[in-house]
Amino acid sequence: MRVKVDLKKCTKSGECYYNHPTLFKVDSEGFPVVQFDPLEDEDLEIEAQQASEVCPVEAITLEGD
Ligand code: SF4
Predict the structure, then answer these.
(1) Which of 3, 6, 7, 15 best tests ligand 1's pocket when mutated (most atoms within 8 Å of CB)?
(2) Residue whose CA is closest, atom 3 of ligand 1?
(3) pLDDT tens per residue across span 18-53
(4) I want to staple 32 with a disulfide (CB 3.0 to 4.6 A). Which of 2, 24, 50, 60 is the partner?
């Protein structure tokens, strides 16, 4: 499974990287940077799912199995 962030939608609100700092780092402009591609284990997949639900502009999506 992979997690994708649509940076055109992202408003740099920070919920993803503040709540899931293992999965997302923040770049110098305030955009999230995914740290695992693909996701390596089930814990990260759960975090990705939670991040996709908390993102206020639905910029985070999951792809694959
Ligand atoms: S939660 Fe969504 S809008 Fe906020 S920084 Fe993350 S991807 Fe961007």
Answers:
(1) 15
(2) 10
(3) 999 999 999 999 999 999 999 989 999 999 999 999
(4) 24
User: If you search the block for the tokens 């408003």, which residue do you land on?
Assistant: 11
Element (H, E) at 9: none
Angle in degrees, CA 46, 51, 57, rounded to 5: 150
Shortest-distance Cα residue to atom 6 of ligand 1: 16
pLDDT at position 65 is 76
- Write down the residue that tokens 């919920």 correspond to: 15
What is the atom index within ligand 1 of the atom nearest the CA of 31? 5
**pLDDT given for residue 57 in this prediction:** 98
User: What CATH code is assigned to 2-63?
Assistant: 3.30.70.20
> Per the confidence metrics, is the pTM higher than 0.90?
yes
